[in-house]
Amino acid sequence: xxxxxxxxxxxxxxxxxxxxxxxxxxxxxxxxxxxxxxxxxxxxxxxxxxxxxxxxxxxxxxxxxxxxxxxxxxxxxxxxxxxxxxxxxxxxxxxxxxxxxxxxxxxxxxxxxxxxxxxxxxxxxxxxxxxxxxxxxxxxxxxxxxxxxxxxxxxxxxxxxxxxxxxxxxxxxxxxxxxxxxxxxxxxxxxxxxxxxxxxxxxxxxxxxxxxxxxxxxxxxxxxxx
Length: 226
Prior knowledge:
Largest sheet: 8 strands, antiparallel
Distance between the termini: 128 Å
Oligomer: single chain
Shape: elongated
Low-confidence stretches: 23-38
Mean pLDDT: 80
Helix content: 10-25%
Radius of gyration: 41 Å
Number of helices: 2
């Protein structure tokens, strides 16, 4: 009799369950868990920068810088806060009112009569800020006659003073202002320390910090300063 050769069983390697990936006896799959491969190391994909996003990111950065710059300029030149000390500007400003100061206005224009300015007397950096109204302009002659202000010999008609001038202070005659000096008074002149006082005197242009333009304290005075 002829011997019949037994063929060994060989699995069909063409129909693999995991195509493109070779299993080993070191690999086991547990239900509910990811495949733990002890003999196979999977290659990680290299992260490559997507250069097409650079213009979008650059645009965002540019817009953020512009907004921050605009906010800084707005706060620095229009949003500086100064507190009112005393009732010398009553009823326009009360003691403790916080006002915003426009610091850029006088870089383009000159202070005008009737403006409420913020300054430090005689430029003393250690003193607090004063808030007063401009009455006399550079080069003018100031007089106080019968409790009224006269400019170059003519009586000044004012709508904002609340009291008469009982104390003339240093203005006991004609006072000539220099080319860079301003004569300032408080609206409540019985309780105002202003250009009549030797410790304050006339305000030079360099001493002016800016123009008070807005009251941010809650109350009746909140809003634009007249």
